Amino acid sequence: MALVRVISSDGAAFLVSQRLAKRSGKLKTEIETFRKSSDNSEAQPEIRIVTIRAEILRLVLQWLQQHQNDPVLPANQNEQDGRGDAEMGQSQWDRDFLAPMDLGIVMELILAANHLEVKGLLDITCKLVESKITGRTVDEIRTAFKLKSDFKGNEEEQTRLENRWCVEN
Amino acid sequence: MDQLPLKSLLLARLVCRKWNAMATTKVANKSGPIQLEVYQPWKPSRGIKVSIFIDVMRNSMLGCPFSKYSISSFHALEELDRFFFHFGRTIKHLDLNLPEGFDDTQAFITLLIRKIPHLESLRIGCCQMFKQMYLIGRPNDVPESLPFGKKVYLGCLRTFCVGNIINMIPSKSWLEAFFKMTPNLEKLVLHVNFKENGNTFIRIVLEALMNHDGLKNIRSLMISCLTESHLRTLIKLAECGLRLKKFRFQDLCIHLTEINGSTLETFLASQADNLESLEIDQSSNFPRIRPFQLPPMKSLKTLSVVSSQRISLGILNYSSHLPKLEKLTLRGYDVFSSSNVFPHSDGAKRSIAGQFLTVLSLPSKLNIPHFPKVLASMFPNVADLEVRGVTNECLKEIWESWPRLEKLKLVVSHFDDNIDSGLTGIPDEVCAELRNEPNSENDCGTENVKTATGITDLKYLRSFEMECRAMWIPCQIITDVAGYFALAKMTSLRKLKVTEIGVPEKFDLSNECIQNIIKTLKHTEVTFKIMDDHGRWQLELGRADILRNTYESEPQLEDHNKDKEYVVDDHSYAY
């Protein structure tokens, strides 16, 4: 089985089958670039991901492994047409996978999924964050994301006023 | 932020300054046009007074985030000077409802060139300006406000939409000059009233295009109605280089003569290599479009034919004539020949017919026995299905024939029987028993009473919409049995919408059943809606409303003319 060594920003190395790695758009491109530039077809590619730390990379690979037999979604699949994550769905496994995560980890996972071009993971993590925003009050959102309001003067009121005029496209 | 819907983005703007900055840039893309009015003689008005908008937005933290506007209720463009001074350079889409008697073509063109230099999409309504002989003053009369000696053109303008032209015969020279100024125009939308010289307006616009240098750039054309002579002009334009990717006409004529099938065939054949989307909407009161044979179209991805009258497109051979078709919409009651539009007798053709087709909207009264099975063999990859008029048997066949459906819309009426059984997979007689036993859901699980496949077996289904139309007589197309044993079990759904039209008294489902659905489908956007048959009276309940109290919410009284508003191309005017 052909393998690839994926190294996180903090130096942890993960040995992954190339078949699995190629489910990430970014890793797939890197492997193909390595193949083209390498004389030795047997050589094992090594890919450094300087923006993703080990804990997050491990989660991405864990998710990829669970979904290795799902069809790969194109990166530009339109969410609005209702077919976004439909192929993969949000399975019970996905829910259990995301349930214990701190929101900070989920946010890092979103950035990692986006960077590594893993559409299915990006969909479900964004959906989770969206669920923490939609239907809540601003104070609840601030509490969930551990943020504080830093608006000055009547800036918040001004933004509320502008929001009233926005209508769905 | 890219992934968030508008509602969430608006909330995100209020969290903190950093989120505000990130969300605001996305709001502009997802928000529709801001409705502005200079005068508001009638209240309540849907628009915002321009002066108020200016005062508020001048204090905006990050500058004005909006780029789409619809402006109405003004007498002269000077009244908008202050607005365009502050926000003109950020405007990309503008719907300008000019006053009916407006004829100041110089002020209009100065506005476009000097004050809205980045305009990409423009819609203008009825006005006298088109009657003017010259676009930029008279030949020797260079307007003061234009850069003297410079070539005047609107390089950013890609979409031009003309709407509500009534009793107007435009000047060809004005239009020719306008097209000369817009060499990059890609999309032209002409929506006119045919009772009032509208067909003449379209004829002159098409003739003016004949001398347009940028004809080859025009990729999308929408005409609200088509005549035989328009088609002949279009054929000439095709000879001059018109190569459309998208062609749509809404046939709203009631007085005009028939369209010869061979003329339509000739025009479509001239576009056959490039056309990706063809939409025909025949809403006239007699079948104006004579039978024609749709020519082979190797690039066509979308075909939509909506008709209130009989229409014949010839035999549709999907595998050889429409090999790339992805979306097929056929709508109308008993207007298509089923054997022509779905030639199912030829097994060999059927097996490879439409492998790329993923979106299918079917007309009512399809005369094909067991049509789900037959059509699934022609179009096995359908993921998005819309069906009008169903029986319990037909529903069971849909679940079995397309088990990988992701999106489904059912439109049913009082002509159809109760479909509890088809939705749940529970035999009809058991459904009848369950209806008479309150709280039966608590006593028996679905699997104990289910004998056939039901909608809950569609594991990939993410969106389910159901429209129940009972125009004259109240009827229960679905009951609590479907509510408890089908709808409430679809926990993988992202969106569930049930609309009842015609008898706006109460929902077919009981309040308890609706509450149960809401509580069970925790991750689903649920909407229940009832409205009268003109959409004038409607009550739409989302999750929060339902959790409060289903029946005590106030209905919303809609604008009486809402259902009379014309529909312009989704992508051009809806921004």
How does this structure look, described?
The complex is a heterodimer of chains A (169) and B (575). Chain A is mostly helical and 169 residues long. Chain A has a single domain, classed as 2-Layer Sandwich (Potassium Channel Kv1.1, Chain A). Chain A has helices spanning 18-21, 25-37, 54-66, 79-83, 92-98, 103-116, 119-133, 138-145, 155-163; strands at 3-7, 13-17, 46-48. Chain A has a 3-stranded mixed β-sheet. In chain A, α3 crosses α6. Chain A is elongated. Chain B is an alpha/beta fold and 575 residues long. Chain B is built from 22 helices and 20 strands. Chain B has a 20-stranded mixed β-sheet. The longest helix of chain B is centred in the first third of the chain and has 14 residues, at 17-30. The radius of gyration of chain B is 27 Å and the shape is globular. Residues 139-149 and 549-575 of chain B have low confidence and may be disordered. Classes of the chains: A mainly alpha (169), B alpha/beta (575). Chains A and B meet through α4, α7, α8 and α9 of A and α1, α2 and α3 of B.
Topology:
The complex is a heterodimer of chains A (169) and B (575).
Chain A: E1 3-7, E2 13-17, H1 18-21, H2 25-37, E3 46-48, H3 54-66, H4 79-83, H5 92-98, H6 103-116, H7 119-133, H8 138-145, H9 155-163
Parallel strand pairs in A: 1-3
Antiparallel strand pairs in A: 1-2
Chain B: H1 6-12, H2 17-30, E1 34-37, E2 48-49, H3 50-57, E3 68-72, H4 81-87, E4 93-96, H5 105-115, E5 121-124, E6 159-165, H6 172-181, E7 187-192, H7 198-209, E8 220-223, H8 228-239, E9 246-251, H9 261-270, E10 277-282, E11 302-307, H10 318-321, E12 327-331, H11 338-341, H12 347-351, E13 359-361, H13 371-378, E14 384-388, H14 392-401, E15 407-413, H15 420-424, H16 428-435, H17 440-443, H18 446-449, E16 463-469, H19 480-485, E17 495-501, H20 511-520, E18 525-531, E19 537-541, H21 543-548, E20 556-557, H22 570-573
Parallel strand pairs in B: 1-2, 1-3, 3-4, 4-5, 5-6, 6-7, 7-8, 8-9, 9-10, 10-11, 11-12, 12-13, 13-14, 14-15, 15-16, 16-17, 17-18
Antiparallel strand pairs in B: 18-19, 19-20
